Automatic annotation (TrEMBL):
Organism: Rhizomicrobium electricum
Domain Carboxymuconolactone decarboxylase-like: 19-101
UniProt name for this protein: Carboxymuconolactone decarboxylase-like domain-containing protein
InterPro entries tied to this protein: AhpD-like (IPR029032), CMD-like (IPR003779)
Membrane-spanning ranges: none
Length: 116
């Protein structure tokens, strides 16, 4: 069985100590992704929304990293947090925005100047 790629903290520990469990977990994720009609772009946004709504900082960071790597924009990810305001509340949305920006801030494009 190949050694798992470098993962964040606890996930890496599970993958190293229990590679068969990690392999099954990874396969479950793949099967869930293939089970319906949503495209990869939409799946990234939905998974980010789940992580933000559940208050999982590490998962928000992870889904933000993966979404950016797959070509989604930081503004698309931030929009997920803004959409949370009426359902989850302003505090939850701000928390999610902060976590998204923890990762996305290093990839921000320079701000555009307003025309006068």
């Amino acid at each position: 069985m190949p050694k798992p790629a470098k993962l964040p903290g606890g996930a890496q520990t599970i993958a190293e100590r229990h590679p068969e469990i990690w392999e099954s977990f990874t396969e479950l994720g793949e099967r869930c992704a293939e089970a319906g009609p949503l495209d990869a772009h939409t799946r990234h946004l939905v998974k980010l929304a789940f992580a933000a709504g559940a208050g999982l900082e590490g998962a928000v960071h992870s889904h933000t990293r993966r979404a950016l790597a797959d070509g989604l924009t930081a503004d698309e990810l931030r929009h997920v947090a803004v959409l949370a305001i009426p359902t989850l509340g302003l505090a939850t949305a701000v928390r999610a925005l902060t976590w998204i920006d923890d990762i996305a801030k290093t990839r921000r494009a320079p701000a555009k100047r307003k025309r006068r």
